[in-house]
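Note to self: keep these together.
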Amino acid sequence: MRAPLHEPSPGEATALLHRLAEGDEDAGRRLFEVLHAELHGLANAAMARQTPDHTLQATALVNEAWLRLAGNCNGNWRNRRHFFDVAAKAMRSVLVDHARRRNSQKRGGGVRPDPLQEVVDLYSERAFDLLELDDALDRLAREEERLARVVELRFFGGLTIAQTAEVLEQGHATVERDWHLARTWLRNELEAG
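Structure:
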C-alpha cells in the first residue's frame, strides 16, 4: 500500500481541494498523494464485500475512481467530508460498471461457455448480484435518500459508522439506525426480486 509522504494535517486536504477548485493543477497531484492511503483503505473495504472471484483489485478501484473524480472536478468539493462522499459514489460507479461489463462478457456473443465456468458464474450470481443491489439502491434513494447515502458510504465507500456520521453530519445513533433500516429494506427488496 502506498502511503502519503507525511501524515496530512487536519485542514490540508480541504486547503488542497480549494486550491484545485481555483485551477492549481499541482494541488490535484498533491491531493492524490495526501489521500491515497485513505482511499486505498476504503477501496479495500469495498472490495472485501465483493464475491471472491471478483477480478478488480483495490488499487485499480482507487485509480479508476480517482480518474472519474479528477475528470469531474468542477470545484464543488466543499471540504474533505464532501470529497469522500463523492469518492464513495465514484467507487460505486466503477464497481457497477465493472459488473455490467463482466455480465455482458458472460453472455458471450455466440461463444460457447466452458461448463465449469457456467457453474462458477451461477454460484457468483447467487452469492451477490451487484447490479441488482445498484437497482435496489436507486429505488431506495427515490424513497429515502439519506438511507441510500448511508449504504453508499458504508458499502461502496467502506466508511465506518463514525466516518459516515461525519460525512453526513448526522449523529452516530442516527446513522446506526439508518444503516439497520437500509439493510432491512434492501434485503426485503432483493429477496422479493
